[in-house]
Description:
The chain is α/β, with parallel strands linked by helices.
Amino acid sequence: xxxxxxxxxxxxxxxxxxxxxxxxxxxxxxxxxxxxxxxxxxxxxxxxxxxxxxxxxxxxxxxxxxxxxxxxxxxxxxxxxxxxxxxxxxxxxxxxxxxxxxxxxxxxxxxxxxxxxxxxxxxxxxxxxxxxxxxxxxxxxxxxxxxxxxxxxxxxxxxxxxxxxxxxxxxxxxxxxxxxxxxxxxxxxxxxxxxxxxxxxxxxxxxxx
Length: 209
């Protein structure tokens, strides 16, 4: 069975999704599947996150479902109970990281400095979320960080778009990119799921040639 890292690497893009209303979770999930991208990171930036994850996990078992912007053990528990398959955090929290490892829950902590990467290695993690990617120097910074940490893989997120996603993916230490350009909050709130499907399909075509 492929590891979580391998599954994410095959997909190349992780849609980072902010849902303001859980009723939008299922039509959004349908748009992702129709567009050819069976993965979603539902962020805990709104009160709708837990219910949205539960809805997608129940109705769309083919979607690889993650919980993002997780900043506490309580949110980890909510994500696991709702059916998430992996956790993404905006930064490195030792307590949250250790808890996920104890629960055998794949976790991708945010990191943008050498010190944070050293902590991730201490916890036996092989992939970091490089966040916020564009604000911390983009691909040039990522390449510089990779030099002393050749064993680490990265999942850049923050400022990723159709214009630069392939620049990141061309670097062999990047396993996938997180992005929201194809699942913008305004499109979700406006019920424009056909447009989301179109943008998702374009993104898939772009990164997979």
